Amino acid sequence: MSLYEQLAERLKTHIRQGLYTPGQKVPSVRRYSTQQQASAASVVAAYRLLEAQGWLEAKPQSGYYVRRPDSLPPQATQTCDEVVPCQVSVSGLAVRLYHQRDGLITLGAAVPHADLLPVRDLREATHRAMRRAPDAGSRYSFPPGEKSLRLQIARRAAEAGCALDPEDIQVTCGAQEAVHLALRATTRPGDVVAIESPAYFGTLQAIESMGLQALEVPCDGDGISLEALALALERWPVKAVLVVANFSNPSGSLMPDARKRELVKMLAAREIPLIEDDVYGELAHARARPHAAKAYDSTGNVLYCGSFSKTLAPGARVGWLVPGRWGQAVSMLKYVSSMATATLPQLALAEYLASGRYERHLARMCRTVESNLLRAQTLIAGHFPHGTRVSRPQGGFLLWVQMPPDCDAMALYQAAINEGISISPGPLFSPQEKFRNCFRLSVALPWDGRVEQALARLGALVEHGKVRSPG
Predict the structure, then answer these.
(1) What is the pTM of this model?
(2) Which DSSP state fits 322?
(3) Suppose 136 and one of 330, 344, 349, 353 were both cysteines; which one would form an S-S bond, judging by CB atoms 3.0 to 4.6 Å apart?
């Protein structure tokens, strides 16, 4: 980072720690430059950067102040409906909405743009892997996968509070296959799976493809409601629980450690497996990587899924599963379903992780997406109608936007597509097509005028009544 970026990060940390609270004036340029032994020009550049990112606001003839929370839309809320199992049918809708089209400003797909990824470093790591293993493209990497990669995954898992043996890790074709394998190992067609609501539509598609029933349990800013889940477990024969405890997709919720511990304990006592999808865990904005629920598992009851698709290489399709006490079943299912995960991407990722560059990349990517999220929240506050709410994620790169009740996200999706903009409408994230007035945005992309104009245009479509619900 340049000096002014370092100064901005330092002040941002102080704001997070509460040294400067919303509405409070930060030190003057002269005072802060003296404190930090930096030039006034560097401090001005740092303050302007934080202003652009939404952390500070400048007041003429007064100075810079920490931006008040009321300058952003209120946080999205979740109502608690009756929790009842239901069949899932979202694949048709997902396929219809997620068609490819050139020229779209893609704000809907939860896939990081190549400009945010270490493409050059990965290419060099691939070349090194090919030199070390020239036969990589001509041999299968049978379960559990390449040991060099599993060793790196085990080392990374220590940051999440998990003490893993590389032999316990099964390499998969992305986290989606990991979730599929976990569900297949723990359930049978017709079984009930409890999920957080709203839920990632890829999870819903997996449940649908296996003939399972989904039990939607409401979430708040702290993740799945344990009270609602406990009541559901008493009433329904739940065979597995599937959650994204860290920066859930699409809500962005982060489950506190105490709640994770309680969730693991609750399910272990009932011998109900917990499937944890932790694909966003390494994208914490505060730099402290939150623990996984798996960290509190002492009985092998948690099946832990992860991936490099959100942080490094979506196209590599490399993920992993720590199957706990279902290890033998998962190995057999992996072998009969896809036989092996591609060898070269595994070796290339192992090379890259061993290079020591991953932490620096994560820090840079987290700074970018955090800045983009703040900018998007500020634009939504300025362009969307009164009554719009938006999530306040502490990690990841997704925003969950809740429009006024009379707005229709499906109508907004179609109107946005006609304007060359893509979003993910709320009904995708519920087997019962709830969240009709909600949509998901992804900001893992280079921020420019086109993105700002797209968000302003979305707000105009909503503000001017172009997307009202029929009746």
Answers:
(1) 0.84
(2) E
(3) 344
